[in-house]
User: Fold these one by one.
Assistant:
Number 1:
Amino acid sequence: MVEPPSLKARSGPGGEAAGGATGGVSMALSRAWAVKKTQRGIYTGGKVALLVPPPLIGEVGADVGENELVVTMYGSDVILSDVKNGQVVALISCGEGEGKEELVTFAVHPIGHEIATASRNLMLRYWDWRATGSTSSSSNIPSSLPVSSSHPRCLRSYKAHDTPVLAMEYDRTGTLLATGGSDRAVKVWDVPGGFCTHNFKGHTGIVNLVSFHPDSARREMLFSASDDCTVRVWSLRAVAGRGGGGGGVCLQVLENHMSAVTGVGVSEDGCTLITAGRDQIVSVWNIGDTSASSSSNSSSSAVRAGKRDKSSPSSASFPALETITLIESLPVYEEVEGLVVLTKDEAHAMGHGMWLGSEYGGRLTDVEEDALHQNRHAPSTRSDGNSSKRKRLLNSNPTNTVASTREGAFALAGGSGKVRIYHYKPKADPFARGLSIRVVAEQRGADIYPRGYAGLIHGGKTHSTYLLAVTTDHNLQWLRGGSLSRARVLVGFNDQVIAVKYLPSGKEGGKEGGRVVVASNSPQVRIFRLGDLSCECLLEGQHTETVLSVDVSPDGRWVVTGGKDRTVCLWLLEEEEQEGETGEEGGVLTATCVRRYEGHTDAVSAVAMTRRKAGYLHLAAGGMGGTALAFSAGADRTLKRWILIPPASEKISVSRKSRREDAGKEVGEKGGEEDGVPTTTTTTEASASVLGHDKDINALSVAPNDALLASASQDKTVKLWDTKDLSLVGVLKGHKRGVWCVDFSPIDRCVVTGSGDRTIRLWSLTDFSCLRSLEGHGASVLGATFLRNGLQVLSAGADGLMKLWTIRTQECEATMDGHEDRVWALAVAPGGGGRQVVTGGGDSVLNVWEDVTKEEEEVALARAEAMVEKEQALQNSVYRKDHFQAVRLALELARPFRLFKVLQEILESAAPSLPSSSSSSSSSSTVLDPYIREWSDKDIGQIMGYLREWNTNAKHAMVAQTILQGLMRLVSHKRLNQCCASQPSVLSGLLAYSERHLARADRLLQTSFLVDYTLSEMQLLFPQAGGEEEEEGGVEEEEKGGKRDVKQKGLSLLMDGNGNGRHDDAKEVEVEEKEEKDSSSSSSSEDEEEEEEEEEEEEEMKQVYRRSQRVTEMGRSRRVKPLPSSSMGKVK
């Protein structure tokens, strides 16, 4: 829609014409917005696994492509999300509302087509997550988690343990499933058969980890860890007279840890077991084979390996049994939460192949070089006798189990926030015990995660050279295997989204609005790509408490944040060239905190930056004293003005990659470094500071020309300040409650504010008066901004709604519902006329809205054209008597009255052709059968709704009942119920009015009998004396028989006149009848049946005669006066 010409010359609050600012070009108003993308939480803590969907060959299921999926716990549900963009693919949930079951953990089938879950109500379920339809409770998808592809279907379920299951895992073949619960038991289930094969008991604490040996075909072993700080090794092999369940036994109890074990892994060759726990110890174990001949040495090895289970059989009765021996204990000085054992191929792909030694360069240490030199020259410096003796000692040493342990690598993640990769190999000296273990890679600098990690797994098949680290604040980070730097981040949970700002493109001709900066209830600030809503960069490491406010410079290179820790941070954003590892287009965005501003005495709840680009170009060049300024305010009620100063010791053009390369130098650029990251300069003195309000300041906004600063406060006022010296310019008063937001118009001299009094107000910057007051929100207005060059206002409230207002008409054009909680953040894309908006709320949802006014208008126009064409086609069909086409078009157009007329015409046109027999009513109902047979389920449901309305009117009830009768005959009751499932009140409405119509028909039928009786009686009371009626009656009687004619004639004579002097005639008639009877009886040739009929007729005639006599006497008793002669003449 184009704005009327009168609006072009509209005078603004400051006296300027709004049209003049736009060059006299009208701006089309917005009418409708729609959510195009949504970033929701997918992980709230618990287990994380990766899944590769199997190809769907000859199966029916959801087509989710070949993208790898990440399976996570989200509250009490299990969510499957696309690794590429984080969008939800499927959700597994057991019920909803109060009866919803809480899922505790899950396990992913190795093939990827099945997922097993354990719930709090002790049930173990298997799900087909690819199913497109389901009748189970899993199809009840919450509105907050819209699933785009599939609705998982429960295949089977049964009770697993007496208490909830806390750990579960498939074996490599997918035929066995191990579960461990809080009942201290470990069970193994046959997945295809659905029965328990082993039930292991022995733990004295809650089982929190189970894992199969990777070579399950050759070594049928199961590892379980418990809160009793032990790891038990179970054998699945059957032993006569031993074990329970399927005959398995506990081989060994590993007791080298002093706290809960959180990680268990087996090397690629299956001979090395690695365990790690929260006691900051990593234990390396050797898995070896013993026979009966070496049973004497088993006791000495068991001392170092741990205690042997008392219930396990001896080696003599259980030959070829694996024994596990402790080789090395490594202190890592952090609580380990994740352990990944790397294969040789993975290590080579990550750049750690050949095990070249020390960190970041592969250069061997001096000790390693000496040992290697000695090993290489050992055969030439020793005699054959010494060499053979050395070999005999090596083979006879029962404690030397390192010889069977090959070199390998493993990765650890824990509370320190560093991921490290360790390399282990046997020591050079064959007589030395233990292993040589060293760190070959670890995170450094900005890649360190201060809040720590909660888990670590393989990066998956699509990211085979990556590691997936799970952070304590529910983020999923893919780390490059070589440098362990962050490649990409998938945000698992945003918590409450507090602030959102668009990040303009810093390049010439770059796409505007391609990224957004989001501050949630966290010390981190996240930058999302709007293309796939994946987290591209994290601003972390500086704020120690929640970030409450954020603002972005107009050139997109600087970000200012303020938090509860009373500090303001200035961040520099740089875009580096993509290394090609992740396959993403464009560069990689990196962030560095270049300065901290301190001075506030309470939380910083609002920050703002000047809007002119010239000042930031001067700042990027390393200049000082420019117009690039930042303002901050907060709960301490003060406003502070900060001059943005670049770091004096480094140039802005130096990329972060270059700084990383120079991070290992002994002398940093600032004279002091920590972990290779330059320290941040802190500024404590603001260029200006003023006590601005009486209560907390909620929002700040800078005018487009950088002349004014507006501050909104809980003291119900908005104040305007001069940006040069923070001198007060004006005060806007009028709100009845605290003001939450303020924004300047891009064209006019006015501002818009939103308040807790549920109103939106527009204020003049000339006389500080209120120009407009918009009311419509049901709760506090938390955000408001201008659209369409100041012609419209977009607002967001605590009621979870967004409203679009036209300023000139003061009308609400549209109301959008996209959040389930209050909307805290609202940002409009720069450039492009404001056709994209991002909102964030307390429901942890980030929505990307787009203006769909043009699309909806085009769709409405196309729909109207199609409607006109169909209307014309309907009229043509009615005119041509093409009833089939007319009925179909009437249903498509949803024209119930036109459909009724067509059906009524069909019934009326068919009525003359029906036979006039008693079956005509039943034949009329079959006229509509050909039409009913062609109706689909949707048409039947639509027709049933129309019948309910038609049946309420007596004029239309006949047609409705005819159609209903045909439906009941031709359509099964089951199908009718399915068609009316969406309209449960249809059947009840039809039944009520149908009973009413039936009662009315019964009354009508009874009344018709009374009319028949009355007419018959009236014919007896007032017969015609002569004329045409008598003649017609005589003809009819003649046709029936002579006898009937004589009787009728006698009756007419009796009823002629008042009945005077008719007794003699009646006697004569009786005499004649008697003579006639005598003559008929004299003829013996007539049958006996005729005689009986005559007797019955005679008796009937007597009764009629008596009745006529009574009627006549009653007529005499009335004494009817004869009409005068004059009136008789008139009658004649």
Number 2:
Amino acid sequence: MAPRETPCLCFRGWLAVTIGLLGWRPSDGRDLSGSRPNILLLMADDLGIGDVGCYGNDTIRTPNIDRLAADGVRLTQHLAAAPLCTPSRAAFITGRYPVRSGMVSSDGSRVLQWTAVPGGLPTNETTFAEILQARGYATGLIGKWHLGLNCESSTDHCHHPLSHGFDHFYGMPFSMMGDCAHWEMSEKRANLERKFNLVAQILALAVLTLTAGKVTRLLSVSWVPVIWSTVGCILAVTAASYVGTLIVHADCFLMRNHSVTEQPMVFPRTTARILKEVSSFVQRNKQGPFLLFVSFLHVHVPLVTTENFLGTSLHGLYGDNVQEMDWMVGQILDTLDTEGLTDNTLVYFTSDHGGSLEAQLGNHQYGGWNGIYKGGKGMGGWEGGIRVPGIFRWPGVLPAGREVHEPTSLMDVFPTVVRLGGGEVPQDRVMDGRDLLPLLLGTAQHSQHEVLLHYCESFLHAARWYQRDRGAVWKVHFQTPVFHPEGAGACYGRPVCPCSGDMVTRHDPPLLFDLSRDPSEAHALTPDTEPAFHHVMARVARAVEDHRRTLRPVSLQLDALSNSWRPWLQPCCGPFPLCWCAREDFTARWAGLRHRALGARSRASRSRSAMGQRVLIGRATPAARDCWPLLVTVFLLLSTSELKAANARKPNILLIMADDLGIGDLGCYGNDTLRTPNIDRLAEEGVRLTQHLAAAPLCTPSRAAFLTGRHSFRSGMEASDGYRALQWNGGSGGLPENETTFARILQQQGYATGLIGKWHQGVNCRSRTDHCHHPLNHGFDYFYGMPFTLVNDCDPSRPPELDAALRAKLWRYTQWVALGILTAAASKTCGFLSVSWRAVVGAAGLLAVCFVTWYASFGFVRRWNCILMRNHDVIEQPMDLERTTGLLLEEAVSYIERNKHRPFLLFVSFLHVHLPLATTERFLGKSRHGLYGDNVEEMDWLVGKILDAIEEYGLTNTTLTYFTSDHGGHLEARDDARGQLGGWNGIYRGGKGMAGWEGGIRVPGIFRWPGVLPAGREVHEPTSLMDVFPTVVQLGGGEVPQDRVIDGRSLVPLLHGAAERSPHDFLFHYCGKYLHAARWHDKDRGRLWKVHYMTPRFHPEGAGACYGQGLCPCSGEGVTQHSPPLLFDLARDPSETQPLSPGSEPLHRTVLARVAEAVEAHRATLSPVPSQFSLSHILWQPWLQPCCGTFPFCSCRQDGDHRGA
């Protein structure tokens, strides 16, 4: 060797070793974890691995999929976790074997059989979409779902894609099948027709037998059984005739988000609509990042193919359908190119399992080809049922043309995309998928899977062991299907091969194959032909045993109990069962807009933060530091003189409170997609509080604390268990008479005091006229508005909201009793049962009691609760929501005009933006966020009109105006047709009903008093709605009561700038009677600590809210108690995403100890009081019901205009 070559070779050797050790290569010089590319997942349905050109097919044209493989990485041992749609897709999106989530069966059902079944992907399973959604991704699913829809009603959507992390869904909640096109190849119709016809034949035979016996007098029977058998026969024949139509309407329909848009589907336009949806989603979210899962309806029977592709392939209709799917892939890739997203998008293509060999009619094959691999769809052990295409492309990151021959799984996609999106793989459960990035990049040479298990239903059919040191892939079969006919390689005459019973062969010893030498599984090994036979069997047996120890019992979602059609779960557009529509839902796409808004808000927030830093730096000049004592003294003197002048003239006080408004819904708090110019103007001209907190996360307790300046549990206005807000006008609970409101104190100081809008603090105690809890008994001179609150029940077109669970239970009991009575009466009449008429009459009496109990309370919810009062008089019962907004605005303006020459306190308590979001026509469709956005913008317009009245009467400079919300936005408020109907809480976690998380209690807080309060000032100190009480009392010249604990603190010094720090060292956050969290303003260190003692369990897990439950609970199994408590530093982590630990925070134990002391001291101030939310107070009591007219015929329209009920 030449001497000059030695240094070169040494350098090359060193470089090779270094690259190997560091896992670095020239094409991958950075850590991709959290790189947040766009992620596009493409999944075919029933596609065989041998149907694609890049996997060896040279007779079907798939140029676009082949181009993906040429530009990316192709996996040759990519495996589905199950050989059928539902379980395979469940494993794909959760990264876990379907047996862990219960998405398997043990009775042969194997997949979800109907849309209207309660089975589906459990809500406690975490999908990659949920994790990426939480990381700021826009998440969309277009195409097939087939993982369930509803649990208990046709609208709960517990299994819906939007309940599993997807912002947007367009497609089939079920799956394509031959029945959708009335094919001869039927999955369900033929079987059901056979069953109904068999029943009809049996009943017909019974009719003939009984009739003949009756006529010939050989049988002594009445004509009743003959008549009933005849009726049953007719019903069975009718059912057999129409079951095909039922299936088409029940399963073959399209949805956009929660709304059915086409029922049944019109197939010729489905392909184009799916492509259009994909293009639209990409364009809406091209600023990224986005996750889009395109789940093709191709190539599942009935192989719906457009005319352009019919007859274009060499393989009949199936080949045409494959080639059309490839064209769709090309169109989607072209969209990425057009939008300039190719280099920043990871694209993945696969199939959910192998091709369907049994899909045949005559000599025509309508299923896929699985190449050299034995078996097909439905076979959990043989390779042909589970080996699928696997292609990844990411230009400039993944090496083009690379092939990976290591065993990989569809479950591996979960940890791969989660890592790329910057998320964390869940640590609270077994994850079966493994991150593929090292393998794709080439920084790892071997798969992370040593053993993979292959299930058929809940039965383990096979296992594979990757023996890396020998480079061998061993496959052990414990049981295999019995082919029909024998040796045919499939189960012809059946839809798929079974998993258990007489149609499988159990092998003892198991079959053993070496896939590295025999990928077709043609030659089973024996101890004679393979020396390692017993070693391999023992190693695999240990692995199976280890795996089984990780399994936990779960409810099987696909067994018959959860997989039978239930009409009350059937999605339907139109009156059930006449479900038919052909419409497109053009409502605003909340999810897309929300994600774009999020990015804009984040940029705006960063911009404001940087600007604030520049201002602070600019202030910190040497001259300012030298003169600050003098400046502070002058400022305090000026502030004191202003306060004295202000107190002398007693300002008017205008308090404006929204209902259920999220802090992130306002422009001045970072929203740039909802128009709130009037509230924004208030903030520009006044002081904006950024850490303003409700004392409770629900209406009644929050407002009680606001009015009294005391935590609501001090007055009994908080739940001990059960109900958390007042439920009826006709209940006896409410704000106790011995509580003092700011209105009462200002009334004593000569103020005119008015309340217009919502009260929700009770009405009566002992009779419908005592008005013990009424506003006029709590310091207000004038009241116009709702003594209760808006609920869905106030709008006859909306689904009921008030006590829906109890209402449903009472109605169910009523139906059961009615059914029992009808059965008993029919049996008595026909002589089938020997029951006395007395029992029937007694049951009828019970039915009457049940019905009256249900109807008297819930049948009149709108009439009992949705009423308007003027002072003590009911003037509209029930309310007409279409004109309520105008009436309230008119009353507010009129009140200002009447009292413009004297100091007044006016509390405008909006009905906006609580469900049912009553919005006038002029604002409908005006916002970018659907009905909720329209309602917010109308509320802002109302604020503007009230401010205009203040200005018109020359009161602007003598009026303190305050704007807030009673608590955070309602995350669980969703609607099938209208999407998200609750607010957005910005960067803050949680929402309405959650007392600990910031999103439930952080609210807007804006004060304006021109010439007195500095315009444009921002206060970043912790403040509370309870602080309004001592603030307005001080400004009105009153005295804060000294005979009770007052939790609020005057904000006057903070608003003026005379004080830099909040008077609150500690604030306590209760959910009902339970302390969920406490915050400590550590002023010396400039830290804001938040300690969580218990937190709600989100439903589904990780969703950020309790979807399907109305609100998150305060106690019981619905919360997690933390020991030690969770600790956050809100100054650095306002979103509460990173709990601190002793290892990450040196002050951890010190903070917990200090807060514990404060909690103990706080609890020492508590005294027992009667609960206003006890069952005796909360239940509807007819004698307390406000009524205009003769009870129970209560009806009137404005100022005594009575009408007949």
Number 3:
Amino acid sequence: MEPGTPAMALPEPPNAQDLDISKQLDGAWTSIGAAKQGMGKYQDSRLRKVVDKSGDTLNTLQGDVTTAQSYQTSAQTVYESDAMKVVRDGVNSFIDSLPGLVKALDEVAKLHPFIGIAVSAFRVVIELDMKRRDNDKKIGVLFAEMKDMMEALLQLRSVKDEETIGPDGMTIKARMQSLINNTTEDIKRCANACDAYSKKKLIVKVIKGSVWETTLKGFIDLFASRRKAFTFALSIHIGVGVDDANRKLKVIDEKIDLVLEFFANIVSPEQQELAALVAKKGGATAVMGSNEALSELLKFKPALSTSAGKHTDRGAAEHNKHQDAVDELAIVKEELFDTPELTIRKNLEVFERKFKMQQRELAEEMRRMVHHEGDRVIQAVTGGPHERIIDPDIHEIWREMRWPGHVKARHFVLALRDYFRQQMEINQKRKVDADGPMSRLNSQDEWAIEYINLNRVQAIAEAFDDDASGFITIAEVNHFTSSRPKDWSLPHWLAYWAIGWQMTATSYRSKIDDISAKMFAIRSLIHPANRNAVNTYLNTVWTKIKTLTASMVGYSQSDELQERFQSYVDSEEQRLREGLETFRYDIDAMDTLVLLTGPGRIEKYIFPLFYLLSQRHFEIFRISRTTVIHKDELWDAVDTIEYVMDAVLWRYNDLQAVFKQQQFDADQQFKVFASELFDYFHDRQQYWSLKNLRKIEFTDVEYDDAKEDQNVDPSKILNYPSASDDLYTVPNDVLTETDNNADDAVRMILGRWYGFFGANRWPRGCMVTFCFHASADRNAYEASDVAALGTSFTILGGYTIEDDGKVEYRFSITYAARLIKRYFRGALDEDGFTLSGSWGTFWFKRTAPEIIIARPPPEDFKENKIRALWKYALTYSINEARRTMWSWSHFKARRDIRKEYLELLEREVDEISTEDDLERFAVLDRTSTYDDTRMFYVMQDYRQRPKPVHFGIVCDHCENHIYGARVVCMQCGSRFTFDFCDKPECVGSTVPTRDDIEGPHLPTHDFVKIRTDILHDREIGKILRQADVGMARAKTLLERASRAENGAEEPNSSERTKPVRRDSSEMSAANSDDDVPVLTCVSCSTSIARPCWYCIDCPDDANVFVCCQCDDQHGGVSAGDTHKAMHSLIRCSMLTNDDKSEEDEKDSTEKRVVALESQMSALSIQMNRIEKLLETLVAGRAVEES
């Protein structure tokens, strides 16, 4: 009963069944029976068998069994209690009773619209819970009590007008409006708490079970209170009998006590087993303080699992891409640290997004499930399976074919085709005989029958058969026909899935490819500070998206046909766009993706989803030309694409399992399924082998910003502040009104703190600073700031008072970049100026950072505290004197620290840090203020961002990641390239064997040197083709120059070309085929000789060579306006004996050809002479005859 509600006698309700206790509890579970069976099976569990077989360890392990049996005894007592019969019999019908309850509540809401917000919230959270079902019985009890509370509103059916005035002069709407509003928020809070609880690991539910139980129990009491308040408010208007109503309200209170007891004793078998192990290790407190015990418990595998299943496995597979390498122990400690209140609060933002999306999905479902004209109204199902089919045409087919509840997909589609062809023939006959039978096919839909044919059987079957089982059920038929657009007929809908989906996917594929091409075209315009982030994005997502778009077989038809489907395509695109805008285009979990797309196969949504995401990410690229974006901006964009690809992987795994079960050849099935969408995903080497990449030419475009939207607002695109906005933050240390109202324990730690975190090494990072403020809750506190490495973080915490009266502070740090959260627990020193702790070692002071950096390390204090304190004071005094006097020694020390810190950061990025480097980091971190290290990281970030990184490319000799220049063998590899660092020992190495080469790789092979960070799959083929052409040209030029130098060819000096080192106008001058080039290094102008490098990016007529000495010395050279240091080069190696033999043979052949040409020329001269002689003789004879 609500506070302030007067106690009064209640009249007897006319509808007694709405208050009947047995009906009120028709919504919990009978799975208390599962608990009984589970404990029975426990006697035969693996642990118990080990006990029976291991006599030596029986006494030790018997305690575990006894502990587990204590849980069993408690559960059995609850299960067998007669008082629990109502709960036991009713809760199992919870799920089954929901549709009827929701429908009844909707009807009441139409009569009394003011309860609509509570009914809508109840429906949304029920749908969310159904998506998340994990068999957690405690959550089930909460939702059952929520259901009972909502059932009380059914009494409003007896009140026909919400404006009817009661005995006290108030209308039912005025009396209940505030109560309904509060109930709506209660429902949301409960659903958020259940969502947060369901995400906890099993070990956390066991160790912190009692704490969570207290929190969740509060909602049972709350819902009971709301239910009584509803009953009280309604009793005034429906005339309930006083004594009977009071008696039944008392029974409700007694029933709630029973449910609370049931709730406390309901424990799954897995939790029972794990609880026994926790008890053996000393209990929850001892386990939480021992990393060793936690690590051991993490290996726990339950002998019985009531929640295992496909959905659970998939849920467990969800991950954050930035946390793959995070220690699982740290994640568990994170969950153990949080209080339920803190966990629920942190989960609220994510839950609210899901709630909003579920609301939208329900509204969309209502729109899709409208009653189509001509649909059958199902009144009875006794006439056969076909009576359950809504669509009249399919109902007629099903009836005539006498199919059971399912039919083979191919048979079904062929029957559809024959049926509609018959109807079209009837239409044709009616044009001749108007008195003939009526056709069920509208003449306006005859165009669609053309596409319901044998060639489209596979596509139509897939549209019905979502699970790819090969069979179509009545439920699938009803779902398919009910989900069609409101104004579309069944033939129209069939034609879309027969041909329209493939046409639409083809159109989206072209758009995606165009956006991808523009992304690569704009790369050269990206701000240097953003270049690495852009390249990381492209290297991570482009190949995955292209694998799907390239695999799908496209299909194009007339614009007229596309126009028939465009209304549905546009509405689906708009639905996805609105969902993405709700989530700020950031998909952070698989359930978020499901809420976004809605039910059904991922292939239905994959291309429009990729298109919308690519479009958004391209706008981030455009902003990146002029604005230094936050480094997490594109990081999260990558995560979003990765989660979509996870859904593709799940679908692929499902299909593969189905094909295996049906004994189909998966290779052949993927070549026909979904227009071959998964074919390259199934066999990646078909498309992405090096052999194939040498042939593929991807689309390239010129970027033209004038064609793009000029009215894009960056604030609506970016989810993070730009990097330039948060390099340094302005301290916000002013106390607020909330701070003044905080608890005494919280007020003691408010304000600015500086300090370090540590572990085995002190410190384990650079200085951290933040300012604590009180939270809205009086017993909580929070802080927000930016770490020295540039990532924003938020601190949330609370406190507990120990038995001895000591205050223990607990807080967690959450990073904006989705890095693993860190958890800490500690206390204030007596002076109130030091906050320190050992769970997550930390030490913070309310002291100026310049004083803190003078403090000696902790080991000095342990060794000799007096000496350490003297050293502390002297160091600070000297530092302060130098700083205030602006002495040269002060600036020199700062310069040296900065240079060494940047060198160490460079080594860290290159992944070559040593233990000595880490020790030096510790020394520099504890002697540098927060502002100093923030500056170091900013400088390193701006240095590192433009540096080319060859993503995923490892040297085939030293096996390290390649930074800087990448040297690729032009001759080896059919599956992947042979890559080397630009170091003599790597380039000059021999690789004896690899599975995609026939012979060894030799250092004499031809190489191409790549200095830009290319996307391997997209650009390596083009580079190798250019390299082959360039190598042929370079060899020709070198051979001609060599012959000229050796006197084999003596060109006229006036015809010789000028040296290559010249200005751009000279470099563009072409050499005729008759010219003999004089080849010089573009940098030092010395004559070129093998070995040397030739540029393949400069125009062909530039003939740009670089000597090895200049290239090695400068790491690439630039010359004029044409040749740049980042251009790709091919190596012209020294001629080997085989090469020389080929050259000699070539020269010998050429000489023989020249000799033959000379002989032919002499013979031609002789023939000319003979011809002239004969002409003279003929002319003389003619004169004589005349």
